[in-house]
Structure formats: C-alpha cells, structure tokens
Write a structure and sequence with these properties.
Elements (H helix, E strand, L loop, with lengths): L13 H16 L4 H11 L4 H14 L5 H14 L6 H13 L3 H14 L4 H14 L2 H11 L10 H14 L3 H14 L4 H13 L3 H15 L5 H14 L3 H12 L7 H16 L7 H10 L8 H13 L3 H11 L8 H15 L3 H9 L12 H17 L3 H14 L4 H10 L1
Helix pairs in contact: 1-2, 1-3, 2-3, 3-4, 3-5, 3-7, 4-5, 5-6, 6-7, 7-8, 8-9, 9-10, 9-11, 10-11, 11-12, 11-13, 12-13, 13-14, 13-15, 14-15, 15-16, 15-17, 15-21, 16-17, 17-18, 17-19, 19-20, 20-21, 21-22, 22-23
C-alpha cells in the first residue's frame, strides 16, 4: 500500500492488509464503495491502525459529516494504539481531527506536511488535494502534487492517480496544454482512470471544444459509467451540448443520466440543479423536473452542508417556488463554518431568490458585488461559471445592456468558439 504500512506495526493480518489495499485502490479510482470495504476490514480487525487511517481519510476527503461518529471512533483507536505523536498514524489522526474541529485549513496543512515527509503517502496526498479544492486553494491544488512528483514513476503503484491529481491542479490553474498532456499520461498507464478522463473533459470545456468533448466522453463512457464520476461526467456531457447550442440534447442527458439516480449523493443533486438552472437561463421549458428535484433536496439535512451545496439547493427551491425551504437554506448558511466561499454564496443565494421572483435588478445588485470573486464558489472553474451566466442573464433581463455587453465580452475573450457565447453576443448586439 502506498499509505506506507511499514511504518505501522501490529494488529494487521494479511486479510486486513488486502482489504486496506483494495480500499485505497477503489478510493483512488472512484469505484465501488471504499468506505464499506474498510468497514469490513475493521469489523474483522478493530486494531487495524492503517484501516483507521484509511477510514478517517475517506471521511475527510468526502466531507462526510454524517460519518463523524465513525471518524471519532477511528481517531480514538489510532491515539490509543499509537501514543507517540510523531508516529505517521498519529499524524493522520491529528490532521483528521483538525477537520473534525472545523479547521479545514489546518487539516489541509497537516495532511500536506505528511506528504512532504512521506511523498509516497498517497492517502494523505489525495485528502490534502480534496481539501485544497474545497478551500479554493487553486495554487496548492497544483503545487502540492508537484512537490512530490519527482519521487514517483511508472513503476510505483498509484502513479496514474498522482498524475490525474496533478493534471486537475494544472487545469484549474489555466495550464490546459500541460493538464491534458498529463491526464493522457495517466490514461496511458490506466485507460480506465475516471479522474484523468474528468480532467480532459474540463480542458475541453474550458477551451470550448464541445464537439470534441462529446466524442471523447462517448469513447470513454465504458470506463466512467460505473464510477462515482458517472453523474458528473454526464453533467459535463450536457454542458458540451449547451455550449454547442443544443438544449434538447442537454435535457435528454439530464433525464437519462442524472435525474434517474436512485440514491443520489448531494454532489449528484448539485449537478442536477446546476444543469436545470443553466437550461432555465436560456428559457428552456423543464416541466415538472424542478419540483421533483426540489423534493429530493427537501430530504437532505442542510445543516453542516458546504455553502457550495446550499447554493444548489437554493436553485431548486427558488425555481420550484418553495419559500419555506428557501428559508431553510438561509438558516443553514448562517450556521456554516467560515469557508472562503461563504460570503460569495450568501450573495449568490440572495441573487437566485431575486431571479426566481423576476426581480432582475436586485439580482444584478447582489451579483455585481461578488462578480470579481466568482471563481471562489467552492467548486471548479466550470462549476463557478454558473454565477457569471446568471449575472449575464439578469443584466439582460434588467435591461442593463452596457453591463451585459461587457460581461459577454469577457466570456467571448475566454471561449470565442462557444455557440452559447455567440448566442449571448447576438442578444446584446
């Protein structure tokens, strides 16, 4: 295991180690249910320290507040088994405890410090990478992996995943050529790696390569269809259709690959909201899809959700005209931790509320204050683009033509080949 099990002694039978290795493989490839796998290992071997490190890392990486009690149990097991604070397992426990205490920045710093001292600890690297993403630390999303990349090569298990992580960091920092090249190196090692496929989809989205993106996702669907990326890459497919000016196909993707998920994760619901809202902005009739999606959001516990997800819940509730549920979002937001996107998302939620009620002037007033920080929404640059799209449409509907023209010029400078941007340009004249 690239978690460096040689540093942890005692309590681990061969079956436990095998399940631990399997857990890590599933987590890095976004396949199966790695948390269920490690639960089986710990049920058979409660003293499996590496297993507790894995469970803690998976919970932090997923930002899984519902699993806090399991995290507490693992931290106590590690601290009892490894009294020396310098022990690698204790360092994992300390990093996870920072997340448990609500200090996500300290958690990222602590997992990152493990990686600097132990460059092959791919669990710490993956968790730090996820924390960097949620914190909006785009530079560290790239550089944290770059710090240890020289130690890795094709002979090291997990190298394809490390390359995929680095490629995503490169893409989020605008280095699209190197990002795609690095992602394709990852796929040369593991042609089924959904993380690398995801990066290439992002690159094509950011560069306005919609037709090529559709062809790429169709050609690789066999590799990502049964992974935790399945809904999100379907969302990317729909975005390519929208960028090509084909709203009907985007809606078909929503029905076939997003709305029909039986037990959606919050991230799946967010992708659904983000897609329907984009369709709403271009006056596409979505029928009863909003109320059905709002029903699913109503079943979620909003308290403790990241502001990023609260904004997507607000889209569904605002579009479905559910005033009581919209207030739930505002109530939940006031109790969230002070993450970087919090101020942005609060203004965005107020803007969504105004937009859904036809008050486009107020919507513009909220968004003009935070437009400059739209890329700090708590998601990828592609996801954060929804704020700019809402801003453009609100400006158009509020008859603020000069503002709309300026915003569309921004968009066309970034993606001149986008049919969506071309349509917006025609509207502003």
């Amino acid at each position: 295991m690239a978690l460096s099990p040689e540093s942890v002694t005692g309590g681990a039978g061969s079956s436990s180690c095998e399940r631990g290795r399997r857990t890590l493989e599933l987590a890095l490839a976004n396949r199966g249910d790695p948390l269920a796998e490690i639960e089986l290992a710990l049920a058979g071997d409660p003293q499996f320290v590496i297993g507790h490190c894995l469970r803690a890392g998976l919970i932090v990486r997923a930002d899984d507040h519902a699993a806090r009690s399991k995290l507490v149990a693992s931290l106590e097991a590690i601290e009892t088994r490894c009294p020396d604070r310098r022990h690698p397992a204790r360092r994992h426990a300390s990093a996870a405890r920072a997340w448990l205490d609500g200090d996500h920045a300290l958690a990222a710093e602590s997992y990152g410090a493990i990686v600097i001292d132990r460059p092959f600890d791919i669990l710490a690297l993956a968790v730090a990478h996820a924390l960097d993403f949620r914190l909006g630390n785009r530079r560290m999303l790239r550089d944290r992996v770059a710090q240890v990349l020289p130690a890795w090569d094709k002979a090291t298990p997990g190298y394809a995943s490390v390359l995929a992580l680095h490629a995503f960091g490169l893409e989020e920092n605008g280095d699209y050529r190197r990002a795609e090249k690095t992602a394709r190196r990852s796929l040369a090692i593991d042609p089924r790696h959904p993380g690398a496929i995801h990066v290439i989809a992002h690159v094509m989205e950011m560069q306005g390569r919609a037709r090529e993106g559709l062809e790429f996702l169709a050609a690789t669907e066999w590799a990502w269809r049964e992974t935790s990326y399945s809904v999100h890459l379907a969302w990317h497919r729909a975005l390519f259709h929208l960028d090509a000016g084909d709203a009907a196909s985007a809606l078909n993707v929503y029905d076939a690959q997003i709305a029909n998920i039986r037990a959606p994760a919050v991230s799946d619901l967010a992708d659904g909201s983000a897609l329907l809202w984009r369709l709403e902005l271009i006056d596409t009739l979505v029928g009863e899809r909003w109320p059905l999606l709002a029903d699913r959001w109503e079943m979620q516990t909003l308290t403790g959700l990241r502001p990023f997800y609260l904004a997507h819940a607000m889209m569904a509730f605002a579009a479905a005209r559910r005033i009581k549920e919209m207030q739930r979002v505002f109530d939940a937001m006031s109790s969230t931790s002070a993450l970087p996107e919090e101020a942005l998302v609060l203004s965005f939620c107020k803007a969504l509320f105004a937009f859904a009620h036809g008050d486009y002037v107020t919507c513009v007033e909220h968004l003009v204050r935070v437009h400059y920080m739209a890329d700090q929404c708590g998601g990828s640059i592609a996801q954060c683009d929804l704020i700019d799209l809402t801003f453009v449409e609100a400006a158009l509907r509020a008859r603020k033509t000069s503002l709309a023209r300026a915003l569309v010029a921004e968009r066309r400078a970034q993606k001149p080949g986008s049919q969506l941007n071309h349509n917006l340009q025609r509207r502003v004249g």
